[in-house]
Predict the 3D structure of the following.
Amino acid sequence: MPETEAGVTVLTAFHDLVEDQPSRPLFTFVDDQGHDELTITAGGLAASAEGVAAALRDWGLTPGDRVALVYPPSPDFLSALTGCLIAGVVPVPVHPPRPFRLKPDLAGFGNVIDGCGARVALTNTAYDRSRTLGSVTSMLSRDTPRWPKLKWYRTDTIAPARVLAHDWHEPESPDEPALLQYTSGSTSAPKGVVVTHRNLAHEVFANARDLGLGDGARAVSWLPQYHDFGLISMIISTLAGNGHSWLMAPLTFLQRPAVWFEVMSRVGATHVAAPNFAFELAVRKTTAEQRKRWDLSTLRSVLSAAEPIRPSTVDNFFAAFSVSGLRPETFCPAYGLAEHTVSVTVGGKSRLWVDRTALEKGIVLPRPGEDGVEYIGCGRVTKEGARLLIVDPETRRRCAPDRVGEIWVDSPGKALGYWGDEAATEATFRARVDGGPDGEFLRTGDLGFVHDGELYVTSRLKDLIITHGHSVYPIDVEESVRDCHPLVRPGGLAAFGVPGDEDERVAIFVETRRDRVSPAEIEEIADAVSARVHEDHQLLCRAVVVGKPGLVLKTTSGKVRRAACRAAYLAGTFDGTVFADAQGSSTILP
């Protein structure tokens, strides 16, 4: 059985589970109506995964080879992922290109395949047929994007093996790559993060302790299987024996959020997790009558991560679902990133109001009231062997207490680096603090501060707008204008900096709730946005761009790509109406 210097690995834990409790249910797949479709036991998953592992060996793949996993949400993905781990092959979960929208999707897909050097792609029959049909349709329309050169294999046609009949791969080192996790690409092109067996074990077993996972835990998730949040926090955690997970397609939740809550209520869920936008959508798309019917009193942890956590979202969500028996103390803010496997801190319990003007200068000055900005804490460092520092990104020296700086982390959860990019690995994963402490740290690229021992995250470093010596946080600008006009779509905002005569100026993309909006309404929206930015931040916008849904560019996991929005604005490659301020530039107003 595979073991590492650090002890038990995820694969070891799964092996033991199969030996001791082969009939234990691990995953249940839910259809778009919220009904259970298929339950997979530990033994059943091991049998299908061993079949895949044997096929991988027959196809000439050896430990260390990369294999793309290109699946719609399905049990077949679980078998392929686990089969790769058993064979020692490095799985690369990839967002499957949409068969009838190949042109916009294949470029990113091709970059991932070229970057990781995969020669083989695993999929299932349903997706393979649809991608083939999509390619034919593209050819007929003379729009022929090229698939990268890959050998495609359908794993749902592979017969299950006899459980524990084959040797399972033993990593030669705990730092051997277990999988490649591609970043969301919210601020740059996606990079392949090398996640090791040590990383996975450290993450999964620490979170089991911090969140109370294990026997009796019941999670309900719609999170994408190809991103770290859903892949590791839900799927791989369950694989290691941390409970029973009910899984549904992301599209099911997006089209009808009520399904998520119906399943939670039906199965007595104890743990759920989602980004901030999901809790907003849940309030908007469910009714008071529905909430009265649901019983959410069994929930022990409602985890929010993967994007900035808005206090107003949290308040509205728990107020709306109080009739369902949902308790505010279940709220569990967290902070993490793919470069640190998934999480850095978990279980924030505090809120803090800080002076807005002082914060723009990088100073944390607690001050509740109209002039303040409210932040939700993302928890403390609880993982064994972890260190978190706030560092000046320019001087690389530790910041004084209650100062904003870049978040640097060192722990066994820090990934090995970026696949095939030694320069980026050196710059990001091996940073050293001038003046100590010793050691190599991960530069997260996120700004934040520590107050009373708890981490607060303020912005992405690359997204920060510096104007007239003030640091303007895009998320604060976006938060200000969310409710400035009834036609503004709350999830469709992107503030970013654009070049000015001396320093940066502020521009903002604004999506409307409807596709069709009159010119007069568009002008009203632009005026309302400009007025609110002026009122809350003493800034004039260089430009307000108003457009229909889709104007704001996002990653496949729903994160706003502010850098891409900025590039589109500067290149003029966007579909929206531009309103510029009278002076033609933003200025700090007295």
User: Anything to note?
Assistant: The chain has a mean pLDDT of 91. The radius of gyration is 24 Å. Residues 344-463 form a domain with the Luciferase; domain 3 fold (CATH 2.30.38.10). The first helix runs from residue 10 to 20.
